[in-house]
Structure formats: C-alpha cells, structure tokens
Amino acid sequence: MARKTKAEAEVTYHKLLDAAEQLFCAQGVARTTLAQVAQHAGVTRGALYWHFTDKKALLHGLCDRAFLPMELLLAEMDQRSGLDPLAQIREISLHILTIITQDSRQRRVFEIIYHHCEKNDEFAFFVTERESRRKCLNQLEKIFKAAVASAQLPPETDTQLAMQAHHAYLVGLMHQWLLEPKGFSLRQHAPAMIDLFLAGLRLAPPIKAKAK
What pTM value is reported for the model? Predict the structure, then answer.
C-alpha cells in the first residue's frame, strides 16, 4: 500500500507540474493562481499544497525537471571539450538552438523563463540562473581565449566582447523564435545562422582597446 501511495503522489506531482507548465505558458506566471493550477490538474488545493507550499515552489519544481538555459549550455561545454575552440563554440550553439525545437518540455520552460515570468529575486531559481550565467560566460571566454592561442583568432581579439556578442546572438535567436516559431525554421537554419556569426567573427573580430 505504501508503494502505491508513493506512486500516486508522484503522479499527482507531475500532473500539477504539467498543469502549471501549460497555464504559465498560456497566461503568464503572475496571472496564474494556485487554484487554477489545481483545477487544471484535476486535484484539490490540499493536494497541491501537500506538494508545493506556494507558487515559487511550483515554479522551482517546474524548472528542476528541465534544464535551465545556462545549465544546458554548461553541460554542453563539458561534452564538446575535445573539439578545436571555434568548432566547440559551433557545436554548443547548434545543440542549444536545436534542442528547443525537438524537446517540447524544454521549449515550454524556455518560453516561461524568457516571455512569461517576471524576473525578480522572489523566485529563487533566477538567482541560480544568474550564477550559472556567470560560470557559463566565464567558460565561454576561456574557449575564445583558446581560439586566440591556437591562432584561429588574432592575438588582439577582445575575448570578453566576443563572448558577450556570442551570448547575445544566441539568446536573441531563441527569443525571436519563441516569439514566432512559424516565422522561420530554427532547426533548419541554425547551422547557417551560427556559421554567419563565426564568419563575421573571423573576418572582423572585436579588437582590444589600446591602453592610453
């Protein structure tokens, strides 16, 4: 009986997360109430509060079962460390852009984070996301520095600016596609878009400002 109760609790937990995922995407986090989540999941409010103390806990649980964008990028860096630096940047970028077209849950989490959630410190996972972003950008800059060391980029390249430009380009593509997925095929055109960025970087890399 205990096992059945645990299994039933697990089913309810995921039903609540599924309901929250759908409602947060449809109407935003701020405009979604816990009562709506419980009703959409087909459970009582008591069942909801047994699993989640408040909306913050619900949102945190939702993001826990899917990679956050920065966590995903950090994981990809570890997987691609054997490639030459710019090839590593290319493969990481392609994976991040294509995964949101293939994994519906990941895509919905991206949508919630980028377009349907107020980014403030009330939601603890945004603190984690900022910490992950700092780690990720530091690691990205190391890859750009490796590209300079291997003569893929000139020695005067401003690697911090290159890193920031790459990050902004990647996030901008995701934002734009999530706003209007039918506007263009991200899965089809991601390689050309990343190659365009890298070609521009090779042709005209950002140059360090000369010391006065």
Answer: 0.73
